[in-house]
């Protein structure tokens, strides 16, 4: 898809485009991407859900991200918000894979469930590390070892 911006392209434009676009919109892509995976899996396994609660959670998280990006710059708060949202959405994907999928799909669903569980562990670890070893700056590109390690596992 030519002409479309990806999350990392928006991040690399940070400083040249408005912070709202480079921070809030880029992170919105990350969170909604996880939700689109959940919705896609629900359609694939024919276990559709309205997901209204997720839309409300995303709206609230985007308001919080906007506040901690534009009005009160706090990288730790933003990273924790993103990690919490990823845990919540991936937990629903896990539940779908382990509890809602028909038994004929259980083999493939179990592997996917384990992968979602691993993403949840990474996000939870990130929250713990951010609290134990707080970031000393609000500059995303100078955020330190913990965030650099977390970025290695997308």
Written overview of the protein:
With 154 residues, this protein is mainly alpha-helical. It has one domain (7-152). It is built from six helices and no strands. The longest helix is centred in the last third of the chain and has 27 residues, at 106-132. It starts with 6 loop residues before the first helix and ends with a helix.
Topology of this protein?
Layout: H1 7-12, H2 19-44, H3 52-71, H4 75-100, H5 106-132, H6 145-152
Write a compact overview of the structure shown.
With 154 residues, the chain is an all-alpha fold.
| Helix proportion | over 70%
Instruction: From the alpha carbons, calculate the radius of gyration and give it in angstroms.
Output: 17 Å
Unreliable segments of 5+ consecutive residues: none
Whole-number average pLDDT?
Answer: 84
Largest sheet: none
The dominant shape is globular
Distance between the first and last residues' Cα = 21 Å
What's the number of domains? 1
H/E series: HHHHHH
Number of helices: 6
Q: Strand fraction band?
A: under 5%
Q: Which class best fits the helix and strand makeup?
A: mainly alpha
Query: Total strand count, please?
Result: 0
Give me some keywords for this one.
mainly alpha; 154 residues; 6 helices
């Amino acid at each position: 898809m030519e002409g479309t911006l990806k999350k990392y392209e928006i991040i690399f434009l940070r400083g040249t485009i408005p912070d709202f676009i480079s921070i809030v919109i880029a992170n919105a892509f990350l969170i909604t991407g996880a939700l689109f995976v959940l919705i896609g899996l629900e359609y694939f396994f024919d276990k559709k859900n309205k997901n209204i609660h997720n839309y409300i959670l995303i709206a609230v998280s985007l308001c919080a991200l906007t506040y901690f990006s534009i009005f009160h710059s706090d990288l730790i708060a933003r990273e924790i918000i993103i990690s919490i949202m990823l845990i919540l959405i991936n937990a629903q994907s896990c539940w779908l894979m382990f509890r809602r999928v028909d038994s004929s799909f259980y083999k493939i669903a179990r592997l996917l469930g384990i992968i979602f569980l691993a993403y949840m562990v990474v996000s939870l670890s990130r929250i713990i590390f951010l609290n134990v070893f707080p970031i000393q700056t609000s500059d995303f590109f100078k955020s330190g070892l913990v965030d650099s390690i977390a970025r290695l596992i997308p």
